[in-house]
Design brief:
The chain has 6 helices and no strands. The protein has 177 residues and is mainly alpha-helical. The longest helix is centred in the C-terminal third of the chain and has 34 residues, at 133-166. It is elongated and about 65 Å long.
Length: 177
């Protein structure tokens, strides 16, 4: 394998995004559902956490949610494993952090739009007065959008740094122009 061949040396962007999706889901499920107990999967969809029966239903759907995030992480590891076995694999901290942030941000934006706004399954912080829920939901979307922007910038910088490392002569010629 040739290290200067970008196809062979390329970073598996999809793996980083899948891993970020999974980690974003785990953060949401572990921190917001379990530790802070701000909401569960269906607390605004007719199953408020005010009875043992509703908590059983929410716990089941929280578990289904966690299975989906687990699948994202497993898929990411499969893709990373397949790529990491190649010789002369070029990695960059900016690439992995950028793609993780892209996946995490993508999780927040999609989950926030679909579950909080379109389906109304739950809201970010249901422990505050109902009229404040929208602010938490918007904050969640802004947080996700910020991760998408920062992740995109890091991915772009990481790709350039990788190109410079793989083909310094071409990079120097481009800089001289």
């Amino acid at each position: 394998m040739n290290e200067s061949d970008p196809k062979e040396a390329g970073f598996p962007t999809g793996a980083g995004i899948l891993l970020g999706l999974g980690l974003g889901g785990f953060f949401d499920g572990i921190v917001l559902h379990q530790l802070l107990q701000w909401h569960h999967m269906l607390t605004s969809a007719g199953y408020p956490a005010d009875s043992v029966e509703n908590l059983k239903i929410n716990t089941l759907w929280d578990g289904i949610f966690h299975v989906s995030t687990y699948v994202f992480v497993v898929l990411a590891l499969v893709v990373l494993w397949r790529h990491a076995r190649r010789m002369h694999f070029v990695w960059s901290t900016k690439l992995i952090v950028g793609t993780l942030l892209l996946g995490f941000g993508l999780f927040n934006v999609v989950e926030g739009i679909v579950d909080h706004h379109l389906l109304g399954l739950h809201h970010v912080n249901e422990t505050v007065p109902r009229e404040q829920w929208i602010y938490w939901d918007i904050g969640f979307l802004v947080w996700g959008a910020a991760m998408l922007v920062i992740g995109g910038l890091l991915l772009k910088a990481g790709r350039q740094a990788t190109r410079d490392r793989v083909d310094p002569a071409r990079s120097a010629a481009a800089t001289a122009r």
